[in-house]
Amino acid sequence: MSFESIKLPPETEKALLQADSLWEKFRKDNFSPKRVVNSGDIPLRDNDYDVIVCGGNLGIFLATTLQMKGYKVAVIEKGLLRGREQEWNISRKELNCLLELGLLTEKELSEAIYTEYNPARIGFYKGYHLWVKDVLNIGVSPRILIAKIREKFEQLKGVVIENNSFENATVGIGGVEVKTNSQTLTCRLLIDCMGHFSPIVKQARRNQKPEGVCLVVGSCGKGFKENETGDLIYTFTPIINQYQYFWEAFPAKEGRTTYLFTYTDAKPERISLRKLMGEYLRLLPEYQNIALEEIEFKRFLFGFFPAYYQSPLQMPWDRIIAVGDSSGMQSPVSFGGFAAMLRHLPRLTTAIDEALQGDYLSCRDLVLIQPYQPNLSVTWLFQKTMMVADNKRLSGNEINQLMSAVFQVMAKMGQEVLKPFLQDVIQFAGLTKTLPQVDIRLVLPLLPDFPILLDWLRHYLNLGIYTGLYPLASSLKPLTTHLPPRAKYYYQRYLDMWQYGSGIA
Ligand SMILES: Cc1cc2nc3c(=O)[nH]c(=O)nc-3n(C[C@H](O)[C@H](O)[C@H](O)COP(=O)(O)OP(=O)(O)OC[C@H]3O[C@@H](n4cnc5c(N)ncnc54)[C@H](O)[C@@H]3O)c2cc1C
Question: FRET pair for 300, CA 20 to 30 Å: which of 14, 238, 335, 499?
């Protein structure tokens, strides 16, 4: 069976068309953001809620930890609050935070885990291959996980308002008035967790185009002969039509999940998701050594992830903060937004709790909860070297050669360098040891333009400074007990910023 003869189910075709139309809008830049946030002098005192979280997918996690702290929290969700069928892959360390925060018991967590496998492969066309253990090796069911967390939230009297779409918000004196398609509610703090395409984010970013995009297409299906191991990042082709295709595979409850992903920018001529799906189906048999007719497809998956230099996003208003995909707190090379959220959940819970306690809810107070993180910003260089820019004339295997060389060096230096990199937590020591050992001749053809390089150098230096500042500043903690509460709040936020920004947490 040829890949052209594969008929996608009608509902997949429809969803793919919708996703492609959004992707096209991004590329053509012909939409202007609606003004959905206003500031006004309306006095808002006896608010309905302490916190309203708009968007329930990852929002329910933070809503529950805040409800557990005793706040009155509501979640407003456009559709129904239920995760998708397809598993989220994550590492055990990140998942354990759900136990540490008391969101789930061990039994509840184990019920949400569908698969656990080892090892996973990293490999590049005509290049280096290696195997690693315990990285993204657990597949959890978003549907079960979200149902369990929701149950806990509602037991604690948290309120879920489904089928209600956020329409606009007015930041007043003492609170925020939030309008949905059917009601008006007020709160002290509004948390935007409406994903990459949040209307609030569109306004805050002023219709800016993303500097990078990761396109992903894939499927989950049965019939694969080998399904014991996974691939974290794998290539078996050179650059094709200006794209380097990367592949990922995981054992899943309903068979095997395979993804094709590629990095690009948001120029109008970029490939559509439909075309990329065609490429995926064309190459899948070679990748997994299987004929298409042997696969019983359960579902097809696709999406695109815009990434902005200015990330995490700092909201320009009082009383509003973004978390999850809307905040851009995950790295531009990964589409592991669930994992990124869990990594930051303890920090976000404590920081928002302290902000609410002290009423530190001005824009200046809140931007410190989503501060600049050099360990995120340095990953932009990797994103740029993994994509083919318009002005680059490449003969074909340059990206594979560079990736191969980088992983070879990291593997030589051991797990303490390799693992943080694979889990999206870049650290100064690992990066400093790795870069000088990579053959400069492999790097040169892929280097981005000089201003980007200069900017990268700034982030790299900041990464070093943050790495030094964190232990120094934490050693001063005993001296801070007598500080006034606001100063304590600021000290703790800076400490978090240096800790997370240096990849130590
Ligand atoms: C194919 C694919 C595979 C992935 N695999 C992984 C993985 O293995 N591991 C991992 O960690 N991550 C993975 N991710 C990423 C992960 O799914 C996202 O990071 C995560 O879903 C982000 O959650 P979110 O709540 O921030 O945003 P979203 O998932 O976009 O959810 C936004 C929520 O807001 C609601 N909403 C939107 N607009 C409004 C409105 N106006 N009013 C009210 N509600 C609104 C939506 O209905 C939705 O519930 C994958 C993503 C894709 C597409």
Answer: 238
For ligand 1, mutation pick of 335, 343, 345 (most atoms within 8 Å of CB): 335
Q: CA-to-CA distance for 326 and 261, rounded, in angstroms?
A: 21
CA of 58 to the centre of ligand 1 (A): 7
Buried b (16+ CB within 10 A) or exposed e, 297-330: bbbbbbbbbbbbeebbbbbebbbbbbbbbbbbbb
Task: Give the mutation target among 36, 58, 344 for probing the ligand 1 site: most ligand atoms within 8 A of CB.
Answer: 58
Q: Give the whole-angstrom CA distance, residue 40 versus residue 332.
A: 35
Q: For residues 475 and 488, state if they share a domain.
A: yes
Residue pair 148/260 in contact (Cβ under 8 Å)? The answer is no
Domain of 493, in residue numbers: 375-501
Coil vs helix vs strand at 97: helix
In a domain, 380, yes or no: yes
Tell me if the pTM is above 0.70: yes
| Residue 171 CB-density burial (10 A; 0-12 exposed, 13-18 middle, 19+ buried) | buried
Domain C-terminal end among 374, 398, 428: 374
Distance 194 CA to ligand 1 centre (A): 8
If one residue of 22, 36, 57 were mutated to test the ligand 1 pocket, choosing by the most ligand atoms within 8 A of its CB, it would be 57
For residue 55, tell me if it sits in a domain.
Answer: yes
β-pairing, 212-222 vs 88-90, is unpaired
- Judgement on whether residues 188 and 153 belong to the same structural domain of the protein: yes
Domain count for the chain, please give it: 2
Q: What is the pLDDT of residue 1?
A: 62
Range among 86-100, 376-390, 431-445 rated most confident:
86-100
Q: What is the pLDDT of residue 2?
A: 65
- Asked whether the beta carbons of 186 and 193 are under 8 A apart, the reply is no
Q: Is residue 241 left, alpha or beta, with left meaning phi > 0 and alpha meaning psi from -120 to 50?
A: left
Q: If you measure from the C-alpha of residue 84 to the centroid of ligand 1, how many angstroms do you get, rounded to a whole number?
A: 9
